[in-house]
Write a structure and sequence with these properties.
Layout: H1 4-13, E1 25-32, E2 35-42, E3 48-53, H2 61-78, E4 86-93, E5 97-98, E6 103-104, E7 116-117, H3 118-126, E8 129-134, H4 135-146, E9 155-160, E10 164-170, E11 173-174, H5 199-202, H6 204-213, H7 221-226, H8 230-253, E12 257-261, H9 263-283, E13 294-296, H10 303-315
Parallel strand pairs: 1-4, 4-8, 9-12, 12-13
Antiparallel strand pairs: 1-2, 2-3, 5-6, 6-7, 9-10, 10-11
Length: about 325
């Protein structure tokens, strides 16, 4: 697999990023449940570097923000950068956000994030304009600007991991919705008055729980996808539900491309993606006649940080 960090340099160099000098840098940051990541780049694409750090055991919001600030300060120092060279920061967060106010609404996996002004913390620390978005949304924009969707203006991204989320790019712009929560489909309830959400079925834990109900007891997605009996039944049920939902998305926004990402997609591999593509196209209307491509995300483990960098650079225009 091609290293996405290496390939985005050419993409950055091929574009104009507003009326800024060559020593202008942008930063993408991933604040997620799997760890911390950052990607730093100048607007000429001549210098692109990234860093990663694990979360401390028992981390809360305060600890995570302290750690990500330390990581970024260290990165800037190691690269010999003056602080005023950093002019934009794009942050992707693993939970619902208010991107207008720059606050995290909550985290479903960690304490302390309720109504926390993350944008203010970054701008106070680095004196650089900061944008905050949900992680799936920034991946969607990253795929549009630097990844598999860079030749299309309209795409839908679905993230299948410890949670289920999505991002929407329409006419080359990230679609946020009225409350800036467009894409939070994982928490849609499947029955009026019911407690079961989409995420309860299609997340990592949801798939493993369903397999256990059918008699396959494992904590490993690789085992689940490889099992010819219960594993394939579990995956088949998930594909059917995904295909129905994605076909509805196609009818609603008519994207050029559907992109799948997250741990579930990586573990399922090409066969998983191809099966979803086949079923989606069997369900969508053929008036007009069309084939909607379904592809895997290309940005790898740094997808959120790269997406944050894409947002930061795009804002320079």
């Amino acid at each position: 697999m091609t290293d996405p960090i290496a390939t985005i340099a050419d993409q950055i160099a091929s574009r104009e990023w507003g009326l800024f000098g060559p020593n202008t840098y942008a930063l993408g940051v991933d604040i997620g449940s799997y760890g911390l990541r950052a990607v730093l780049a100048d607007i000429r694409g001549t210098h692109v570097v990234h860093r990663a750090a694990d979360l401390r055991p028992g981390s809360n919001a305060s600890m995570v923000l302290d750690d990500v600030m330390t990581m970024i300060h260290g990165l800037l120092q190691e690269e010999g950068m003056r602080r005023d060279h950093l002019v934009r920061i794009g942050v992707g967060f693993g939970g619902p956000v208010d991107s207008i106010k720059g606050i995290t609404r909550r985290s479903y996996r960690m304490q302390g994030w309720d109504n926390l002004n993350v944008r203010e913390r970054f701008e106070d620390a680095f004196d650089a304009m900061t944008l905050l978005e949900n992680d799936a949304s920034v991946i969607a924009f990253g795929e549009h600007l630097f990844g598999v969707g860079r030749d299309v203006g309209d795409l839908f991204y679905l993230h299948l991991s410890s949670g289920v989320g999505s991002g929407i790019v329409l006419d080359g712009r990230l679609h946020r919705g009225v409350t800036t929560s467009a894409g939070e489909i994982g928490h849609a309830r499947l029955k009026v008055g019911g407690a079961v959400e989409v995420e309860d079925i299609l997340s990592i834990n949801g798939l493993l729980r369903r397999a256990s109900e059918l008699g396959l007891h494992t904590e490993d997605l690789t085992t689940l996808f490889a099992d010819p009996g219960v594993g394939q039944q579990t995956v088949g049920e998930a594909i059917e539900l995904l295909a129905v939902g994605l076909a509805g998305i196609v009818q609603l926004i008519d994207p050029a491309l559907l992109v799948l990402g997250g741990v579930v997609t990586r573990k399922g591999g090409d066969m998983f993606v191809r099966a979803i593509e086949h079923q989606v196209n069997a369900l969508v209307s053929q008036t007009p006649q069309r084939h909607i491509p379904v592809v895997a995300s290309s940005l790898g483990h740094d997808a959120v940080a790269i997406g944050g960098l894409a947002l930061a650079l795009d804002s320079l225009n």
